[in-house]
């Protein structure tokens, strides 16, 4: 599990909300 993956997931989640 990478921190960068979490950050990317967060970014996508923010953009889609």
Automatic annotation (TrEMBL):
Identify this protein by name: Uncharacterized protein
